[in-house]
Every structure is written in structure tokens, then in C-alpha cells.
Amino acid sequence: MKLLECPVIGKRPISEFDYMGEIRIPPLAADEKTWSEYVFNRKGAPCSLKEAWYHRPTGRWYVVVRNTLTDEIEAHVDISEVQYELPA
Amino acid sequence: MPWQLLKYGFKRSHDEPRFFPEARPLKKHYDVVIIGGGGHGMACAYYLAKDHGITDVAVLEQGYIGGGNTGRNTTIVRSNYLTPEGVKFYDTSVKLFEDLADDFDLNIFYSTRGHFTLAHTDSALRTMRWRAEVNKHLGVASDVVDLKTLAEEVPYMDLTCAGHSPVMGALYHAPGAVARHDAVAWGYARGAYNRGVELHQKTRVLNIRTDNGRVCGVETDRGFISCRQVISMVAGSTPRITEMVGLSTPIEIYPLQACVTEPVKPFMDTIVVSGSLHVYVSQSSRGELVMGASVDPSVLHSTRSSFDFTEGLADKMLDLFPFVSRLNVMRQWAGMSDITPDFAPIMGVTPVKGFYLDAGWGTWGFKATPVSGKTMAWTLAHERNHELIEPFRLSRFADFDLVGEKGAASVGH
């Protein structure tokens, strides 16, 4: 069983998590081309991906940097680093 | 019956000639370079030579022919999709498949089994009625069947699904079939080779050179070759190729796993799929149960297998077929699926002139092998999209004109 080591709850089975994909900051004011690129296009090639994982039993979100070639978690990211302001 | 089998039976010596040539040096220039020697790449090469007389073609394959997703799928061929564009496209493929063995003079073990997609909920049944009507309208055999029919046709299945998710009905698709996937790739490869196409296995593409927005050649680990057209038919490696030409796509790579049990006497003559339980199963001509589920939960560029998969799959399989608890799993494996947001492929011309894409085949690529080869060959020859693939063009995302095939993929979408 694959485990995800979390800073708050320790090692938990990966099956307890929902995968929410890459975390990106949306273009808050954009033309249609930029917007469609944000909505659909993804970093498809192997890389270190900053992604969100949701732990269902505790309802907590985690942001990790994971290598999508080796499946290793490289770093935990503080949630404040991926926050952004909504336009007024 | 393929004639070759009869002739073979009467021959005194039974050694087979080589299917493919020994490795040869690469030429300096080809008209067309096909990246990826799987079913799609080989089919494209075959139809380029056969339909359009284009034979100055090199197929570059980093591993061996048919060793990627062509050799890793569960070989199901069907056309009971949800959208009219999907149904038309996949139905053309089924019709091509039915004649392949004669075209190749090679047994591809094409076996029309009938295909049941089980509904466990009202909403699933409603989608199936919708699918059946779309299919029938386009001339594809597809019917919603009740529990009585299911009990007669699949008597060994527990229709109560262990009591917690009773089956309510099913979509029945009579032309649903299985085929020997390796033979499909080999047949296309031999046909292409006999018509003058060059096949280069163990040849990896390192970069694609462009000049003024137009493709001019391909760098490989065996040297540079110049060419006029490049087509990428590499499924799970697509993002690595599109990165070389600076193209962004919506493709994400998720592993898809499958497994087979030890062989047993034939008892299952249909293909059974349950979208709600995320499981599909058929019995191979060798007697093994070939089983698959939905893709792994997160993006990963790897073909590793996991215990989580077999555990989860066995759980669902035992609900439907309790007696398989006595069978051992013999092999399991994974392929890299190139998933798109609308579960339809991405095919045809791209903003880079001379660079063509045949990708986004996710979990539904094998059944499209003949039609994708045929339409992409047409597209290369005419330098514009074939009408059957126009709905699957890359620019549909920028135009917010998606295909909406989501409801019809077998499982997990």
C-alpha cells in the first residue's frame, strides 16, 4: 500500500486521499484564448508537479510537490504559498 | 479462413519467414516520419502506402513493435458510443476490423462476442437508452435489455451484485468483439513493410527541428533525419513529443492497469462491462479472464503495477462472479493512458506546419486502430483533416467546442 507522509496527520494510505491535480493560479482577467489555455491545457510531460491532495477522513487539504516520473513526494508546500486574491 | 493457414498445414517444413526486417541504417531523408510503432503508427504507415502510394516513410519506435499500449489493452472493439461523431468514427473502425484478417492474410483472432454494459442505477439506465437510440439512428446494433435477457445470456453472473448494487438492465451491443492485439500491429507492420515502408525499432526520437514554424527534421539517438511531415502516434509519451515542438495540449498521463487469471475452460462468451463498479471482463481464446478497471488516481509516467489495483478489482469481480474466487491472477501490467478532458482523441493538423498529432487515446485507443490509421494517412496525404476526425481537432479546446463523449467510455470516467 502506498503511503502519503503528511505534516499534520503523519503517514496515511493513499487510498484515503482524493487527487485534485495541479494547483495553478487562474488568469483572473483574461481574453478567451488565455482562458481556454488555462481551463484545458496541462503540463503533460514528466516534471515536478505542485498538486493538491484532499484527505477525506479529516477533511484536510495538502499541497505537495511530486515527481510524476518517479512518484516521489519531493516537498510539502504551505497553503499560503498557493493562495491568491480574488478581484474585488 | 486465411489461406495462409491452409497452405501452412500442407507444408513440410514449418519455419515461418521473418515478419520484419533486420535493423538497417537510417536514410538521411524521408517524406514522412511516423513516431511510434504501435498499432496506430503501423496502420498509418500501411494506409499511407496502400491508399495513397506514399512509401518514403520511416516508422521510429523506441522499443519494439506493438510493445506499448497496443500490447497492454484488453482488446475490446465496439462502437456503441454516445455522440454521433464518436459512433460514426468507431463504427468505421469496427467495419475495417472485420476485414483485417483477409487484408493481412493473417489470423487476428477477431471474435464477435456481444458486449453487455450493466446498469446498476436509474441514471445509468437512462444514459443507456440515450446511447441505444443514438446508435440505432446511425445504424449501429445497440439495445437496452432487461434482467430476464441478462439471466439467459450471462447465467453465471450474480445479478443482485452480492445484494448491494443490483443490476437493473444493460446495454447490449451485438458487434462488440475482441481481437489479438499483437497480430493487429504485426499485420499492419508486415503490410507496410512489404509496400516499402521502413521500420526502425529501438530508435528513440530526441528532438524535432522546426524552421519558421515548419517541421524540417527529427533528431534520433541514431542521428538526424530530415523530413517533410512528422506524425506523433505515441499515446502515453505524447506530452514528451509535443514539448519538443512547443505545443500545449490538454493531455494528462494516467496509468491504466489490467490483469489476467490462469486459463480455464471457456464459459464466458460475451464481454461484460460495469461502469458503476469500474470493471470489465472477457475470456480470451486461451481461456484466461482478461480484466481491467479505471485508471489510477493520479498522474504518473510509469508502467508499474500496484497491489491496490488487483485488490480493488477482485472486490468488484467477486460481487458479479463469486465463483472466480478460486482463480489465481497470472499476470498484471499497466500502460500509460493519454487522457483528454472530453474523453475524445486529439487528431489531425496542428499549429506547427508539417506536424500532425494522433493522441489522446486514453483508455479507448485499440478499437480505433484501423480507422485512426486510415484517416491520419488521408490527413497526411491531403495536408488537411479527414472529415471523420474534424470533431477531434486540437483547436476544439480553444473554440470551446468539446465532443462530450464522457458518458460513453466504459469505466471510470
From TrEMBL, chain A:
Q: Name one Pfam family in it.
A: SoxD
Which terms does the record give in the GO molecular function aspect? sarcosine oxidase activity
Mind telling me what this protein is named?
Answer: Sarcosine oxidase delta subunit
The GO annotation for biological process reads:
tetrahydrofolate metabolic process
UniProtKB/TrEMBL annotation, chain B:
Any one annotated GO CC term: cytoplasm
- EC number of the protein: 1.5.3.1
Source superkingdom? Bacteria
Checking Gene3D superfamilies in the record gives:
D-Amino Acid Oxidase, subunit A, domain 2, FAD/NAD(P)-binding domain
Q: Where is the signal peptide?
A: none
Identify the residues that the record assigns to the Rhodanese domain, covering every copy: 32-76
Q: What InterPro entries does the annotation carry? A: FAD-dep_OxRdtase, FAD/NAD-bd_sf, Rhodanese-like_dom
The alphabetized UniProt keywords are:
Oxidoreductase
What Pfam families is this protein classified in? Answer: DAO
**EC supergroup of this enzyme:** oxidoreductase
| Gene Ontology molecular function | sarcosine oxidase activity
- UniProt-recorded name of the protein: Sarcosine oxidase subunit beta
Species per Swiss-Prot/TrEMBL record: Nitrincola nitratireducens
